[in-house]
Each structure stands twice: as C-alpha cells, then as structure tokens.
Write a structure and sequence with these properties.
Elements (H helix, E strand, L loop, with lengths): L3 H4 L5 H30 L7 H23 L7 H27 L6 H27 L3 H31 L4 H35 L1
Helix pairs in contact: 2-3, 2-4, 2-5, 3-4, 4-7, 5-6, 5-7, 6-7
Length: 213
C-alpha cells in the first residue's frame, strides 16, 4: 500500500540512522578507554587496531546510508542539510580517535598515564552528552530538553582546553627530547580534537532545535 507517512518523511529512518551514528561515536570512545587501560597495565600499546578501523567504517556506512536515504526521500523530518551535517560530524569522532590511537601505537617512548586519562574521561562525557542530544530530536525539538546535555558538553570542551594547556606547559618545561615533544604534542591535540568533534555535533543539534523552536 502506498504510504503517505514515507512520502512526507514522517517515518523514523533518519532518527534511527542519526542515533546509530551517535551510538557508534560513543562506542569508539569506549574502545579508546579499553586501549588506554591495556596500555597502562602492560606499558605497551595493543598491536591490533582493527576494532577502531571497524568502528570508523561502521560510522562511514551509516553516513553513506544517510546520503542514500536523503536522495530517495521527498520530504525529510529535519532540513536535509542539517541531517547531512550531523551525520558527517558524528563520523569525525571515531575517525579522530582512530588517528589518535594510530599515533599512540607507534610512539617509541613511554606514554604519560595521567596525560590521557583525564582527556579520555572528558571525551566520554562529551560523547554521552551527544548521544542524549541526538536522541532528543526524535521526540521533538525542545531546547529545554537538551539544555542539561549541552551544559555537560560545554563543560567537557572547556575542561579539555584547560587540560590541553596544562599538558603543553608540562611538555614544554619537562625533560623531553625534541622528537618526543613533537609526537606527544600531536597526540594531545588529536585527543582535544576528538572532544571538539563531539562539540561540533552537539552544536548542530542545538542549531536544529533553534530552527524549529
């Protein structure tokens, strides 16, 4: 039977895909936690990074499905540009984490334990906030409903900036060789960028809500 619901974009496929993308972004953060835990226990990075590659590829498949559905759907529940932008922003989370882990896996020195522990905690907080914000879209675009999650996301971003400054200060003033300094600085920046990717996704959700409020 012909479905007006599908014709006018009232089905849940886009919400399903965006929520799946947010969940996959959060899953990549959980993989990072496990990676760091093993790294700290053994002093050596795990050799197998396949899980991170699979997570990034899964997010990419979701993004491609979003693009396919956009090409097939006449009217969408949210603006097409917003759906696409949010799916791309979510994809960048596991992509940045995979890049960070790749750098950690080839770093020849001993990884500072406390340096990444706090960043990983903030990244988890940011990813959880993004999942909550994306899930709120399905029930309606109410700014009050996502305000708490937005506050947590902004806190994580602000703390990540502060932690980054402290890490760089310690790095520049510490007994590091030039090669170590360059490598660690890049990895620190990748960790901060992962939080920024979550922030960007959250900002898009807020923009969607403001457009429809």
């Amino acid at each position: 039977m012909f479905s007006l619901k599908k014709l006018f974009g009232k089905d849940d496929k886009f919400y399903d895909l965006l929520e799946a993308g947010a969940d996959e972004a959060k899953a990549s953060v959980s993989l990072l936690e496990g990676y760091l835990e093993q790294l700290y226990k053994t002093g050596k990075p795990p050799e197998n990074l396949d899980e991170f590659m699979h997570s990034r590829r899964a997010e990419k498949r979701i993004r491609n499905l979003v693009l396919e559905e956009l090409s097939r759907t006449f009217v969408t529940p949210l603006e097409r540009e917003d759906i696409e932008a949010l799916s791309v922003a979510l994809y960048r989370v596991p992509k940045s984490i995979e890049k960070m882990v790749e750098r950690l896996s080839i770093y020849p020195g001993r990884v500072p334990h406390t340096a990444f522990q706090r960043q990983a905690e903030l990244l988890k907080l940011a990813a959880e906030a993004v999942v909550e914000m994306v899930r709120q879209l399905r029930s309606g675009t109410n700014l009050e409903k996502i305000r708490t999650a937005t506050d947590r996301l902004h806190y994580a971003e602000g703390e990540a900036d502060r932690v980054m400054f402290d890490l760089l200060k310690e790095l520049y003033q510490g007994p590091y060789e030039a090669k170590e300094l360059v490598i660690l600085q890049e990895i620190y920046e990748l960790a901060e960028q992962s939080v920024d990717c979550c922030r960007n996704a959250g900002n898009i959700v807020v923009q969607i809500v403001l457009k429809h409020s």
